[in-house]
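One thing: mind reviewing this one?
=====
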Amino acid sequence: MVSLIKQPHPGERRMIFKNIDRPGWSNDIESYLNDGGYEELKKAITMQPVDIVNEVKASGLRGRGGAGFPCGVKWGFIKQDGPKPNYLICNADESEPGTFKDRVLMCGDPFAVVEAMTIAALATGCEHGYVYLRAEYPLAHERLANALAQARTAGLLGPDILGSGLHFDIELRRGSGAYICGEETALFESIEGRRGEPRSKPPFPVEQGLFGKPTVVNNVETLVNVLPILERGGAAYAQMGTEQSSGTRLFCLSGNVARPGIYEVPMGTSLLALLDKAGGVAEGRRLQAVLMGGAAGSFLRPDQIDLPLTLENARAAGTTLGSGVVMAFDERADLPAVLQRIAAFFRDESCGQCVPCRVGTVRQEEALGRIAAGCGKQGASAELRLLDEVGAGMRDASICGLGQAAYAAVESGIKILQLYGPPPAPLTLP
């Protein structure tokens, strides 16, 4: 595996990435145990499930997959005395273009993923868990399968974990390269053996999820954060970052930066400072734009990058942290061509279940193609109006987040970067 982990920059605050480079941690449970591994599970076993949930609530941990929902609140929705079984799913279908942090966590610290899932299962009353892993991650599959086998042998997974009476085991399931299966209900359909298509909500997964049972879904980075929360305590964890966005965050820097890779920084670090940690724009070229959040994200201009990287500040600025993608484009980049590739991506990845997304993603790509082919100023203005109408339809009427976000990057290219000139005035009804 090509390493994307650089030596820590003085401004980094490594917490969940601190053990990535430790010898033996990727494949030997004895090395993990000798260096303090599974101490947090031992602590969790002595606690009541509600106390674990309350620590996670006190930490302020929000999901690191894009939606940013409070993790402890989600866990608290699961009824311990409700119908069984409860299921726990680690969403490792990391398929957002430009995202690679979960892959490195699973390859470099797989026992931490297993330990964190076991603690989450104890807190939510789950006896069976799944890691839904994209098929393009063969090394992660190998490392996780090895970690699961060694954990079972050591009595840290399976029946009666550490003599506590806790029964929990984990099954690996490979996805088939479908972007839509990163959406939790489409993921359920895939695990159950059907075509990956989103379900309507409600009911929500915590009430009726996998196989119709209460289900907790978190991504890899979210789950691994549970370990430092139990180690330090929820209140101490909440002191890092900001009041509404606590802890640290992994950002995947790519594109035209001098030192691409994964950077772990406290929430609230500015985008400008983060780009500086990556050495700024490669070869001293001028920055043209930054894509935040991947294909489902939006662009920022160079005059917008002094932005604190928090959920609340990103929302106020009309952008998103998404899954941690930060993609820099220098002055040489052909951004209209980038938008066309994003539109083609969403056309290909739409599951086709709902009309707004199935038709809208095609119409979006076609309109961008006509503009690129040169349809004249008047024609371009009409195409931009069409794009806005189609985008609004996808955003307001699509079943899931894929269709709802399919216009975001294109819209920001039109309205923020003004790649095709000033956007036309909105249509007014007579």
About this structure: Strands lie at 86-92, 126-133, 169-174, 215-219, 248-255, 261-266, 287-292, 298-300, 325-330. The chain is about 40% helix and 15% strand. The mean pLDDT is 91.
